[in-house]
């Protein structure tokens, strides 16, 4: 995905671009709020998403952006000071639509507190990037009224430590021993989950049990995410395809927009990829995966619920526990958003509550 970051403050530009470049999935370009720079950039290329940091003294950049984009709808995420809401509403600018969204910036110490916003910014960018980019066909309608967003508790999120890509070629897939193949690990995560899952999987050896995972992410990026993890991890990481066997030393990532389930066949497990309705507002759904894992693996299952917003996965984790499997929830201090793990803990679904850096050890030594 190609992201252009437009911000007047050089430190903010650097913090945002470093964060997104560190994911390995986003090509980030940063530039100041300068009309001529913006026009030159858009004359040569078209980004997938625009991240625009707006202040009172940089409002003129909106006109330059409109001119630069022409008739192409490019999804835009606005970072706004609170006092700009009424100003932009008066300008008839739509901040909430299929191709636009916004976040309110901290009122004080933005350079220090931008880290609090990074996971929310990342999540909104993923979903905005999934909106189709196409020329306008008709006059835009009047902007919908701006509604203040309810604050979501977000913890400080340091830039992730990215392991070096594997320097030695991996053995062919499926060449590891069959030991522990009766065990099955299922992981679910959402906001902050790309970095969290990278942290866990990159710490695992090829002798680990087979893993299936759901990350709430648009369909156009799950394969790129799986491919990126595959270069960083000793284990094999791949996007789910129907009837794929679950093997030791391998992690299978759910496709965006499709549910992932596991079925038992003989002595092994196989994945099933299906279209379906949203579950808990998501497809793929963590609950849908966990329910199937509880049925297929029973006492040989381990369910892990990590950082994320909402309640998806809590009931499924309880079902794994009731089936005799082991269950783990990420703790509050290392979760970017404690919603999903907290929902599971409140439900009594978690045997253990552990820090992110200890989850890999739980997988290896349950």
Assembly form of the protein: single chain
Query: Total helix count?
Result: 11
Low confidence ranges: 133-163, 176-180
User: What's the total count of β strands?
Assistant: 15
User: Radius of gyration from the CA trace?
Assistant: 22 Å
In CATH terms, what is the architecture of the largest domain?
3-Layer(aba) Sandwich
Helix content: 25-40%
- What distance lies between the first and last C-alpha atoms, to the nearest angstrom? 37 Å
Q: What is the CATH first-level class name of the largest domain?
A: Alpha Beta
- Mean pLDDT over all positions: 83
At CATH level 3, the topology of the largest domain is Rossmann fold
- CATH-wise, what's the superfamily of the largest domain? Methylesterase CheB, C-terminal domain
Helix/sheet category: alpha/beta
């Amino acid at each position: 995905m190609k992201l252009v970051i437009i911000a007047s403050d050089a430190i903010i530009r650097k913090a945002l671009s470093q964060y997104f470049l560190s994911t390995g999935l986003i090509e980030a370009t940063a530039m100041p709020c300068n009309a001529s720079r913006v026009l030159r950039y858009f004359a040569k290329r078209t980004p997938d998403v625009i991240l625009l940091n707006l202040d009172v003294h940089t409002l003129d950049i909106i006109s330059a952006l409109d001119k630069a984009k022409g008739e192409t709808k490019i999804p835009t995420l606005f970072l706004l000071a609170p006092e700009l809401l009424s100003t932009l509403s008066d300008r008839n600018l739509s901040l909430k639509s299929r191709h636009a969204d916004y976040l309110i910036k901290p009122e004080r110490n933005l350079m220090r507190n931008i880290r609090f916003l990074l996971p929310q910014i990342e999540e909104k960018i993923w979903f905005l990037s999934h909106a189709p980019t196409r020329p306008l066909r008709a006059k835009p309608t009047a902007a919908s009224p701006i509604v203040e967003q309810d604050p979501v508790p977000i913890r400080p999120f340091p830039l992730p430590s990215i392991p070096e890509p594997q320097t030695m070629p991996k053995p062919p897939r499926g060449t590891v021993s069959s030991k522990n193949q009766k065990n099955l690990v299922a992981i679910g995560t959402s906001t902050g989950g790309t970095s969290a899952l990278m942290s866990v999987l990159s710490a695992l050896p090829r002798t680990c049990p087979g893993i299936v995972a759901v990350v709430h992410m648009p369909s156009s990026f799950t394969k790129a995410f799986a491919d990126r993890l595959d270069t960083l991890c000793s284990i094999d990481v791949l996007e789910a395809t129907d009837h794929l066997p679950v093997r030791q030393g391998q992690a299978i990532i759910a496709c965006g927009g499709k549910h992932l389930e596991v079925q038992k066949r003989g002595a092994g497990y196989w994945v099933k990829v299906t279209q379906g309705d949203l579950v808990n507002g998501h497809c793929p759904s963590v609950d849908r995966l966990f329910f199937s894992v509880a049925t297929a693996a029973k006492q040989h299952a381990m369910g892990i619920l990590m950082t994320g917003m909402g309640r998806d996965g809590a009931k499924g984790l309880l079902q794994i526990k009731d089936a005799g499997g082991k269950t783990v929830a990420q703790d509050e201090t290392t979760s970017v958003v404690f919603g999903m793990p907290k929902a599971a803990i409140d439900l009594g679904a978690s045997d253990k509550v552990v820090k992110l850096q200890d989850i890999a050890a739980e997988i290896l030594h349950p």
